[in-house]
Amino acid sequence: MMNTNNFHLPQSEQLRNVLGMLFGNSTEARDTGVLDPSDGDVFTATYVDDNDQLVATCSCDTAFAAYAGASLSMLPVGGAREMVVTKDFFPAVLENLNEIMNIVSTTFMCDKSAHLRLSKVYRPSELPGTMSQAVAGSVHKKGILVDVPGYGTGAITLVTF
Predict the structure, then answer these.
(1) pLDDT tens, position by position, 43-99
(2) Per-residue pLDDT tens digits for 45-57
(3) Burial level of 9, CB count in 10 A (0-12/13-18/19+)?
(4) Which of 62, 107, 134, 148 could form a disulfide linkage to 10, CB 3.0–4.6 angstroms apart?
(5) CA distances (Å), 17 to each of 41, 60, 93, 101, 145, in order?
(6) CA separation (Å) from 72 to 52, 104, 129, 148?
(7) DSSP 8-class letter at 139
(8) How far is CA 145 from CA 24, 55, 65, in A?
(9) What's the rounded Cα separation, in Å, for the pair 91 and 20?
(10) Whole-angstrom distance between the N-terminal and C-terminal Cα of the chain?
(11) Beta strands in the chain (DSSP E)
(12) Per-residue pLDDT averaged across 107-127, rounded?
């Protein structure tokens, strides 16, 4: 898959600015290594273009999923930490993660890019093998650690094709 739609690979500062609108101005983001979407603890959002072709993904670890999702509903931090450990997520947290991943879609677009949209958020170990292979084969990846104020730190990996 080749990036012929000019989709932008977001940098830490851009992601911090977007997520800061959700979680508050003290949201921090910094570069880190990339996540492996085939890992059993990684959620992966897929984004498609107007022809339903996979053009980008955003993977996150269970810590980001729990902290970010809980933050939007102002759930107690203890409940978010428990979700990280047990991997048993409240439905509201998963719905919030879906909304967060939808908002993250805006970071892939720029003035010169085509339109893209959130296709689906896959729970850990649910990402189809062909998509996992596409992510592994992409050279356009960015790993970012995000500090969700009052909750904790989680990791995100952004990929374009």
Answers:
(1) 999 999 999 999 999 999 999 999 999 999 999 999 999 999 999 999 999 999 999
(2) 999 999 999 999 9
(3) middle
(4) 107
(5) 26, 18, 21, 15, 14
(6) 29, 15, 31, 10
(7) S
(8) 16, 22, 12
(9) 23
(10) 6
(11) 28-32, 42-49, 54-61, 116-122, 140-148, 152-160
(12) 94
Residues in the chain: 161
Tokens 């910094």: give the residue: 30
Structure token pair of residue 76: 């107690």
Distance CA 156, CA 147 (A): 11
Q: One-letter amino acid identity for 80?
A: A
pTM, two decimal places: 0.94
Exposed, middle or buried: residue 158 (CB in 10 Å: 0-12, 13-18, 19+)? buried
Q: How far is it, in rounded angstroms, from Cα 137 to Cα 135?
A: 5
Q: Report the amino acid identity of residue 41.
A: D
* DSSP secondary structure, 109-138, as one string: --TTS--EEEEEEEPTT-S-HHHHHHHHH-
How many angstroms separate the CA atoms of 69 and 15, rounded? 16
Residue type at 110 in one-letter notation: C
